[in-house]
User: Fold this.
Amino acid sequence: MSTHPWHVDDALLQRYAEDRLGLAAAASVETHLTACERCRAAVVPAIPSVAAGDLWERVRSEIVLPREAAVVRVLRRLGLRDSDAVVLGASRALHLPWALAVVGALGFALAAATAGETRGRMLVLLVAPLIPALAVVAAHDSTDPVREIAETTAASKLRLALLRTLVALVGSVPPLLVVGLAVTGGALDLLVWVLPALALTSLALVLLTWWSARTTAGVLVAGWVAVCTAVGVGDVAAAIGHPSTQAVALLVSAVAAAVLVRRLEPGVLGGAS
Amino acid sequence: MTDIVAVEDLTRSYGSTVALRPTSLRLGPGVVGLLGPNGAGKTTLLRMLATALPPSGGRIRVGGHLATGSLAERTAARRLIGYLPQEVTLPRGMTAFAFVDYIAVLKEWDVAATRHREVDRVLDLVGLGDRRTRPVRKLSGGQRRRLAIAQALVGDPALVVLDEPTTGLDPDQRASLRDVLSARAHEATVLLSTHQTEDVAALCDRVIVLIGGAVLFDGSVADLLAVADGQVWLGPAATDGARASWRTGTGQVRSVGGTPGPGSVPAPPGVEDAYLLLARPTTAPHEGARP
Assistant:
């Protein structure tokens, strides 16, 4: 039986349980709880079960799940939803497809940066939005050990490809810096292609929350071709490295990411458990 | 009985090679065993039912959804399917839990807490609950096979397609798997291919024997055993014209088919005997016992 002369009142206990007390007050309550059996018993039911469940889930995840790669942790902090983080984490755990995807992204940047003022450059420009995604799809199709299982699930294959492309593009930045410095003497020529590709990939992911894969792909490809045609090959190539173009690409990526986070909030789209 | 799977005139060819001749099937709840020699078309049929391989012709419905139809219909069908391919190379660096968690995400289990509970459930089902944090590379062959089976059971699919699930499992693990699959079969179609005829006898409500890309037998285990009734013999020597014969541990020769010689007595047939009679319709050279 508790022998304490006083006890924490219910309202204060409730606020403590819900983590709504200041540091000093919370410390004071905790000091009392360590010595008062009656208040300890009273505080347990006051802790919201959801909060306790979340806490347990976090503890459990730390123990059971492997530590995520830095790029996935960064994306998660930026608002990436849990299930997408799992997909991206798994993509990195599938070492060979991941390596090939990053190599594909590197190849795309090299091809774009080194193509001359020719038809070849026009071709690169026209397929630029597709190259990283195609590299990722090809890498997983040919080397993913669980491809056959993944294929028979209900997951959108385009969305998977775009998510993987997103993380491959982000992951390709450090090797691009190295390759750029080693090959061209300046990494900027290569890096300038990453942000536009990132913007188009992010935009595609957002549009997929409204439109079908076919419509999304059609609109983006048509839009890109229209821009290339309207601006002209040489001008597009010159403009792509301009700070304003990079700023626009960064802005589009950021806005797309923000909209994506909003669109993927529970209840916005409905969906499976 | 409600049909979960309806197959109509399903065919598949690889160039000029016909892997599956026009096949129609209706499958309700229960365990269905698919028997047949290598190259008979078993894996081709299973892959098409799992939507991993498009058919050359015909239609597949799963839970009323046309799996061979539009993307939307195929996606709806895929929500009802759990699939274990014949050969799966699991990502060596992932833990058992992380691997099944990944597949669960692909199966649209988006809420982490419920998904993790489901992953725990299927890992417990296959006896890997205490191995969840172990990397795949540190699991034994049998444990990896069970892990691959676990992912097929995520979400209690209405159609479970398992291509040789018992390969690499020891007798105890096979018995446990039978228990899991028979429980699931109360409300789902569990379709499995196997070369282990004892699994068929112990587990399957229905057997389909596929030979040369065509269904040669489709019925209950009892019906299959009836095929070999009176055609299995034990004696000092192989029967004349036996489809298969071998010397048993008792020193006697067990013969399937053929005309019994002196000293031969009838033996109760097994699933393997019936299968051999179907798979070897005529006398063919084979490794047998020497009298």
User: Anything to note?
Assistant: The interface with chain B takes residues 53-54, 57, 60-61, 63-66, 81-83, 86-87, 89-90, 93-95, 145-146, 148-155, 160, 266, 271-273 of chain A (CB under 8 Å). The radius of gyration of chain A is 25 Å. Chain A is about 75% helix and 0% strand. The longest helix of chain A spans residues 157-184.
